[in-house]
Fold this protein.
Amino acid sequence: GDSVTQMEGPVTLSEEAFLTINCTYTATGYPSLFWYVQYPGEGLQLLLKATKADDKGSNKGFEATYRKETTSFHLEKGSVQVSDSAVYFCALIFYNQGGKLIFGQGTELSVKP
Amino acid sequence: DAGVIQSPRHEVTEMGQEVTLRCKPISGHDYLFWYRQTMMRGLELLIYFNNNVPIDDSGMPEDRFSAKMPNASFSTLKIQPSEPRDSAVYFCASSLRGGQTETQYFGPGTRLLVL
């Protein structure tokens, strides 16, 4: 079935380090891809999205490119801040499944000063 | 603008009791989703509504769970009777339209503990 796999956490980085969180998906079609972020004690917020192959989503210095050939949507940021500490979820939706988001397991990021 | 509102934020109950979780979606949104988050299973969709009508309830774990949306501004998720394995964070989300490209807006969640 359709699924999303993320790199396991926790990921611990120093402030201003480069961040990559890997995300790959398994699907029979062409889903839309999303990154959501969950700060401690809060609900999920959309970070960025891409709806077709080669699209690049970006927000708050984060970027991810929809790579159909590798079925990937890796999240990157050039210089992380302490305030980026959160759990990051990769997710997908298929056109024929209404709003059914399928989430990866989440990757916890901890940024130290 | 108010986001998705959920109540209560925390709920502690004893096994066998009825639990009702409440959600108010963003005004004007046509779609409402209920998710459950646990360490073991991660985030999973339980049920979603379009224009107050349940569309897909395949994620509802068993008959002890039920969800209703009596109008466009209110939904409930009920567990009766509750069991310790129902302990989780329950999120409600809404979107303006359904479909592949729409952003879902999540509430803060209800943290449920069943003793």
